[in-house]
Automatic annotation (TrEMBL):
InterPro entries for the chain: Haem_peroxidase (IPR002016), Haem_peroxidase_sf (IPR010255), Peroxidase_pln (IPR000823), Peroxidases_AS (IPR019794), Peroxidases_heam-ligand_BS (IPR019793), Secretory_peroxidase (IPR033905)
Name of this protein: Peroxidase
Protein's organism: Triticum aestivum
UniProt-annotated site: Transition state stabilizer, residues: R61
Location in or out of the cell: Secreted
Residues bound to Ca(2+) 2: T188, D233, T236, D241
Length: 314
């Protein structure tokens, strides 16, 4: 009898484990429940990036800032909270693009496609829209009912981060040094505000090309103009390529946290490799993006599928 009870308990445990496993992400998650989900997201992103190429970088950054705080759970899309944190306030963009895609999907697949998945796929589609590599996105994330400004302030690496600080921030999310260098390559597109590189161009850093620093000063004065923008990649600012790494080789990284990757550091050889081998960068970047997209997702019955990405369901 005891044996029978033990077998019964073992069966319950096995069923529980199988249920937990089935709650993991799958690239075919919406094939039956919302077969046109991926097409709708791609279309929405393509239209947004076509009218504003910078939006591709903004959506990619929005995904990064989501995943590094509580995992990839769309917490960053909730009004207030994380949006008001230091790394996010006044600089995060793309909320309207995600909202528009969500509205379209709600009209055809009611409360089926999560905001977290929309944002994750939109990040991939943004890279593709600007000429970068594609990858298969595992799906099935659910949306959080909470957000954390304090975690956004503590867990998101900033523009003044050192290489070791960057490594520590990514290691905390189970991302390694190669992932770190590859994900930094997202700065091959997009812009940064003057306040984030002013110190670097006015003598705070010695590892900067003098002519490059001078060229940035016109639009980034020593005082004022905090939100004035500069391209993160001056060579091909709207093309997702490996020029970011070529820039680093000639000390033309815009942010301190960019140039630290090539500054007599342990990451120098990886930067050289990505600068000379676009395929190596693309491969490492897609690998890192999939890993980042898998940070602590809510699955199964965890969280919810929000009806509107900016607020929890009432």
């Amino acid at each position: 009898m005891a044996m029978g009870s033990a077998s019964c308990i073992s069966l319950v445990v096995l069923v529980a484990l199988a249920t937990a496993a089935s709650g993991q992400l799958s690239s075919t998650f919406y094939d039956t429940s919302c077969p046109r989900a991926l097409v709708a997201i791609k279309s929405g992103v393509a239209a947004a990036v076509s009218s504003d190429p910078r939006m591709g970088a903004s959506l990619l950054r929005l995904h990064f800032h989501d995943c590094f705080v509580q995992g990839c759970d769309a917490s960053v899309l909730l009004t207030g909270m994380e949006q008001n944190a230091g790394p996010n306030v006044g600089s995060l963009r793309g909320f309207g693009v995600i909202d528009n895609i969500k509205t379209q999907l709600e009209s055809v697949c009611k409360q089926t496609v999560s905001c977290a998945d929309i944002l994750t796929v939109a990040a991939r589609d943004s890279v593709v829209a600007l000429g970068g590599p594609s990858w298969t996105v595992p799906l099935g994330r659910r949306d959080s009912t909470t957000a954390s400004a304090s975690l956004a302030n503590s867990d998101l690496p900033g523009p003044s981060s050192s290489r070791s600080q960057l490594e520590a921030a990514l290691l905390k999310k189970n991302l390694n040094t190669v992932d770190m260098v590859a994900l930094s390559g997202a700065h091959t597109i997009g812009k940064a505000q003057c306040s984030n590189f002013r110190t670097r161009i006015y003598g705070g850093d010695t590892n900067i090309n003098t002519a490059f620093a001078t060229s940035l000063k016109a639009n980034c004065p020593q005082s004022g103009g905090n939100t004035n923008l500069a391209n993160l990649d001056t060579m091909t600012p709207n093309a997702f390529d490996n020029a970011y790494y070529t820039n680093l080789l000639s000390q033309k990284g815009l942010l301190h946290s960019d140039q630290v990757l090539f500054n007599n550091e342990t990451t120098d050889n990886t930067v050289r490799n990505f600068a000379s081998n676009a395929a190596a960068f693309s491969s490492a970047f897609t690998t890192a993006m999939i890993k980042m997209g898998n940070i602590a997702p809510l699955t199964g019955t965890q969280g919810q599928i929000r009806l509107s990405c900016s607020k929890v369901n009432s």
